[in-house]
Amino acid sequence: MNRSLQFISVLRTCIAVVALMTFGNALQCFVDPSFLKNRLYTNVNDDRGLTSRIVGIWTLTTAILRFSCAIDIYNKPIFGLTILSFFAGFVHYIAEIFHYRTTNLIPSSLIQIIVSGISVIGLCCGYLFLDKSKTIQTIEDIEDSKRTTFSKYMKRKSS
Fold first, then answer.
1. Model-level pTM?
2. Suppose 133 and one of 4, 40, 75, 149 were both cysteines; which one would form an S-S bond, judging by CB atoms 3.0 to 4.6 Å apart?
């Protein structure tokens, strides 16, 4: 396996792991309305949980987008939107800490900044490898591959 395919494979796995964590965060926002106040937005007073539900919808949407990218990493529009979602998250957390001051530099906000920043860099590097690593197969190639596999399987069964 060449380097570009290896990088894309690792990138796909990392996106899937981050998507899974994002999905978990989204569920937490709906299950426990005080989750965000206790863990991330420490300087916000939101007794009704509206902020938690809004952030929950946002994180659920990004989780779905990231899962889509991990499944179909060669789809450039989805890939581009995934980069933008990580970039938007990065800018959001930087703004919340330094401009709006709704949170402080605590471990949970630092983790969000680090993960989104590294993801943006990794996805931008991955974008350079997309065309190099993709192998285009025709329908005939796929059918030939199926026939070859099937004939090998049948030979083993008859032996």
1. 0.79
2. 4
